[in-house]
Structures are given as structure tokens and as C-alpha cells.
Design a protein that fits this description.
The chain is an alpha+beta fold. The protein has helices spanning 7-20, 23-30, 42-45, 141-144, 173-178, 223-227, 326-331, 363-385, 393-408, 410-413, 431-435, 437-446, 472-482, 495-502, and strands spanning 49-51, 71-86, 89-96, 105-108, 112-119, 130-131, 151-157, 162-167, 182-188, 198-207, 217-219, 233-236, 249-252, 256-265, 270-275, 279-283, 292-295, 297-300, 304-311, 316-322, 334-340, 448-449, 452-454, 457-459, 462-463. It binds heme C and copper (II) ion (CU).
């Protein structure tokens, strides 16, 4: 029989295996022999047995009310699935329990846990689990290496309270984690946590796709991007918009909200922040001592966690972000908490005054933002009111192009396309834009600077290139929109036209 391998040696083995990059080579490494059921002492045998309640994110199992230990049976299933990662785009996720992050597990300090890891027969690969709550080699990974259609069992005692990450540790590990194989296990302290009115489960992860952000179709893991730590997506709960709209978290004014927040990685840490709220209490790094109060942004390491509590005092939408903000605004790390209930205008008044200020053009920003919200509603209403729109390619392109425009162009060219005198040239009725299709594509792809005359007026500014931010399809859509709106009229732009100019 193979002797137990000490952790450093195992780690070295895993590293070597991931260097080999072939999962078949690592399969042999991951396997450890069956050692037979543990002989439990009488005091453990006498404990009550219960099956752990597992929940899918953003939900959390109910607080544990017993004040004595139990033998808890956990049944966790590994499933490889295809699911939406962004609008129109699917991704091949590997999951614990069919969700990203995996099922939330809640136990109590002192519990003896009989853990079953079941790898669904439809899986293509072996998987295992390293629970940071476990004291022992590999956190359970050494004992749970499980082939497709198999089930492994091991037992551990929850010695330390805290909020712990669990993840797959099968080589190549960053790939298994990068495909969504992580979750949280809460080990409640003996006396429980202070009560909260609402508890939610949110985890951040970085995803490395073999295509652009929301690029459409089916995407899978991209190893070079992962090695360079260049994520395509940084997400809360495994998809763009997983906590937005009717999937937003909810609470009522006066409630104490608790977030169990973790970072699966595989690579990035999180500067976790809720816009418009202050964390009243933070259990830093998921430890069990209340470590800090009144915190704006808390650092959460990759493979780490935090527990934050905050009372919601006024109604509105509070936005969860990684305050490394490109991740929020360009890679998907945005969630929402919608709070309903009575206003308290002393705590937060709302906009009290909007007056003209002649010193700068700053007011344009808020006017534009208001107009953007109106337009976005219009688009939604239009699409809703007209189901045949989907069949009409040009209109469809216009609708999609409008969304691209409202994200990437309106700030300078304004929602109405009229530009800004002396600074940003107009697109509405622009003789310059309408004169040359290929030139317009080139401008969007590569940007523009130097003097230009539009409708008889000279401009000399800088337009940043959009080729790295937008897909070819998005460029075709936005150009179709701007050349067919505000009195302009032209044929729809095709992806092929964009590709041709891009290849110049
Ligand atoms: C940061 C501000 C900014 C953004 C964002 C921006 N532009 Fe521009 N755009 C400019 C400026 C400034 C010029 C003129 C550059 C010059 O003077 O050489 C310009 C010029 C143009 C022109 C040619 C001139 C004309 O008016 O016909 C087109 C077409 C155009 N932009 C389209 C777009 C589209 C489409 C987007 C979004 C995908 C976009 N721009 C985003 C600032 C911007
Ligand atoms: Cu795995």
C-alpha cells in the first residue's frame, strides 16, 4: 500500500502534474488507496446523525440552533455543465452541486462530518475537494479523488470555526477552479453567530475564456490567459448579471444584512465593496473573531472569505462590486441589493437641488445619464412591444447597436448624436461619417486624432480606439445604429466589412 504522502510532497507532485498539463498524467498522482472506515469512539457514535442542508447561491442554509455536536452527513455532487456566462454566451462550467459557486455547506464547530463526494457519471474528468475547514493532508483532496461515476467518502472533525473556501485540487488546479469548482463551508462557532435578518452567499471568481467578453457561442477555459492572469470575466456567482434585476438580493429597511463572501480565484483577490453602504461589522478573512467595524472596502484573498454585516437604513439599490473597478464595469463583477421600505430623508435626502452652473459643463454628465436611463427603458419597451424584431436583422442590429452606443459612445457623442460644440463632432447627419463606410469602421477600430471637418465645422480632438473593447459584431451593430439614426440612413454594416478593415 502507498503510504500517506506528506503535504509538501503532494503539493510538489501537483505542481509537477500541472506542469505536465495532461490531466491523464495527474490522474495517477491524485489517487490514494482506500484505507477502510474509521473506527469511531463511543462518544462520537452516540452523537445524533443529521444530513446537511445544502443551498444554491445566493441562499444560505438556516442558522444552526443546536448547541451540541452532531455527526453530519454531507452529500456533494460534482457535475460538468453548460450554462450562460453572459448574454448570448455559454460556458462549460465544472461545478459542485450544479452551480457556481458550489452548494453552501453549514456545520458547527465540533461536528464530525462524513463527507461524500459523488462525481456524476456524465463527467469527463476526475475531481476531488480540498476544504479549507479540514485539518489533514490536502484538506480532503488526498482522500476524495473521484473518477466519473464514482463516490468517495472520508470523515473529518471540524476543529476550527470560521468561513472556509472549498475547491477542487485536481491538476491542473487553476483550470478546475477557473471552471467554477469552489464554494463556501461555514463552521459556526460553538455559541453560534449573532443573529442576522437576511443572509446571502456570494462568491467572486475570475474566468479565462477562449473568446472575448460576451462574444457569443460556447466558450471554454483558455490556459495561456489563465497563466498570464488576464481574465475575460470577473464574476459574482458565475455569470454576468447573476445578481441583477429580478435576481438581485433583497432586504427591507431596518434589516441587518449578512453577506458570506468568498473568492474562488483562481488568481485575483477582491476589493469587496457595496456602493452606498458601510459594513458595520467585518469578520476579516472569515475568521471567527469580530475583527473590525465601520469598513468601506474589505480585502478578500483568493481562496479566502469574509463575513460582513450591515443594517440597511434607506431604500434603494446598492451595488456590490470589486472596487478594482474595471472588473466591475468591463468584466462583470457587479451585483445588486434592492432595499424597499420607507425613506428617511435625513439619513439620505436624494438630489435636493438641480441648478444651472455656468462654471463648467459638468451638468452635461447628469443630463446625459438621465437621458441614458430613459433611452434604455425605451429600448427595452421597444423590444418587448415588437416580438417580430428578432427576425428583422437590421432592426435587431440597430437595437443591439443602441446598447453598444449607450455604453461606449454616448459619453462623448451624446445620446442624441449631436456631439459637443468644439469638442466632440456630431454623428447625427454627419457628412463626414456618411461619406465613407470603411473610414468609419477604421475610426471605431483604431481611434482618430488630428483636425477633421464635420458639417463645415473643424474639430481637433482624440477619439480612443474601440477595437480592443468591442467585438467585430458589436462594431458592425453600433455603426449600423449610428448610420441609421437621427436622420441618417445607410445599409447595415456586416461583420465581414469590419473584419476586412481590421485585417488591413
Ligand atoms: C472619449 C470620447 C469619444 C468616444 C467614447 C467615442 N468617440 Fe467618436 N470621436 C471623438 C472625437 C474627439 C472625434 C474627433 C477626432 C478628431 O478630431 O480627430 C470622434 C470622431 C468620430 C467619428 C468621425 C467624425 C464624425 O463625427 O463623423 C465617428 C464616426 C465616431 N467618432 C464614431 C464613434 C462611435 C461609433 C463611438 C462608439 C463606439 C465613438 N465614436 C466613441 C470622441 C469619442
Ligand atoms: Cu475538478
Amino acid at each position: 500500500m502507498k503510504p500517506a504522502i506528506p503535504y509538501p510532497a503532494r503539493l510538489a507532485g501537483l505542481l509537477l502534474a500541472s506542469l505536465a498539463l495532461a490531466s491523464s498524467a495527474s490522474a495517477a498522482e491524485g489517487y490514494t488507496p482506500v484505507v477502510g472506515r474509521v473506527q469511531l469512539p463511543p462518544d462520537v457514535v452516540a452523537l445524533p446523525i443529521e444530513e446537511a442542508v445544502l443551498t444554491a447561491p445566493p441562499f444560505v442554509p438556516p442558522a444552526i440552533t443546536r448547541r451540541t455536536p452532531a455527526r453530519v452527513v454531507v452529500n456533494l455532487e460534482v457535475k460538468e455543465i453548460t450554462a450562460r456566462i453572459a448574454d448570448g454566451t455559454d460556458y462549460t462550467f465544472w461545478t459542485y452541486g450544479g452551480t457556481v459557486p458550489g452548494s453552501f455547506i453549514r456545520i458547527r464547530e465540533g461536528d464530525v462530518v462524513e463527507f461524500h463526494l459523488n462525481n456524476h457519471p456524465s463527467s469527463k474528468l476526475p475531481h476531488n475537494i480540498d476544504l479549507h475547514a479540514v485539518t489533514g493532508p490536502g484538506g480532503g483532496a488526498a482522500s476524495t479523488f473521484t473518477a466519473p461515476g464514482h463516490s468517495s467518502q472520508f470523515t473529518f472533525k471540524a476543529l476550527n470555526p470560521g468561513l472556509y473556501v472549498y475547491h477542487c485540487a485536481t491538476a491542473p488546479v487553476p483550470m478546475h477552479i477557473g471552471n467554477g469548482m469552489y464554494g463556501l463551508i461555514l463552521v459556526e462557532p460553538k455559541d453560534g453567530l449573532p443573529p442576522a435578518d437576511k443572509e446571502f452567499y456570494v462568491m467572486q471568481g475570475d474566468f479565462y475564456a477562449n473568446g472575448p467578453y460576451a462574444g457569443g457561442g460556447l466558450q471554454t477555459f483558455d490556459t495561456p490567459k489563465s497563466i498570464d492572469e488576464r481574465p475575460t470575466y470577473v464574476l459574482f456567482n458565475g455569470a454576468v448579471g447573476s445578481l441583477v434585476g429580478d435576481k438581485a438580493l433583497t432586504a427591507e429597511v431596518g434589516q441587518n444584512v449578512r453577506l458570506f463572501f468568498g473568492v474562488g480565484g483562481p488568481n485575483l483577490t477582491s476589493s469587496f465593496h457595496v456602493i452606498g453602504e458601510i459594513f458595520d461589522k467585518v469578520w476579516l478573512e472569515g475568521g471567527n473573531r469580530l475583527a473590525q467595524e465601520n469598513v468601506q472596502t474589505t480585502m478578500v484573498p483568493s481562496g479566502g472569505s469574509t463575513i460582513v454585516d450591515f443594517k440597511v437604513d434607506v431604500p434603494g439599490t446598492y451595488v456590490l462590486v470589486d472596487h478594482s473597478l474595471s472588473r466591475a464595469f468591463n468584466k462583470g463583477a457587479i451585483g445588486m441589493l434592492k432595499v424597499t421600505g420607507p425613506e428617511d430623508r435625513v439619513i439620505y435626502s436624494g438630489k435636493e437641488v438641480d441648478a444651472v452652473y455656468f462654471g463648467s459643463s459638468a451638468e452635461d454628465g447628469s443630463a446625459a445619464a438621465k437621458r441614458q436611463a430613459e433611452l434604455e427603458q425605451e429600448i427595452a419597451a421597444e423590444i418587448k412591444a415588437n416580438p417580430t424584431i428578432a427576425g428583422l436583422t437590421k432592426e435587431m442590429q440597430m437595437a443591439k447597436g443602441k446598447q453598444v452606443y449607450m455604453q461606449n459612445c454616448f459619453a462623448c457623442h451624446l445620446p442624441s448624436g449631436e456631439g459637443m460644440a468644439g469638442v466632440f463632432p456630431p454623428l447625427a447627419k454627419s457628412d463626414y461619417m456618411m461619406a465613407d463606410r470603411e473610414r468609419s469602421i477604421r475610426i471605431v477600430l483604431k481611434g482618430m486624432n488630428g483636425p477633421v471637418t464635420v458639417n463645415g465645422v473643424e474639430y481637433n480632438g482624440v477619439m480612443p480606439p474601440q477595437g480592443d473593447v468591442l467585438t467585430e459584431e458589436q462594431i458592425a451593430d453600433v455603426l449600423t445604429y449610428v448610420t441609421n439614426n437621427w436622420g441618417n440612413s445607410a445599409d447595415a454594416f456586416t461583420v465581414d466589412e469590419v473584419r476586412k478593415v481590421k485585417g488591413e
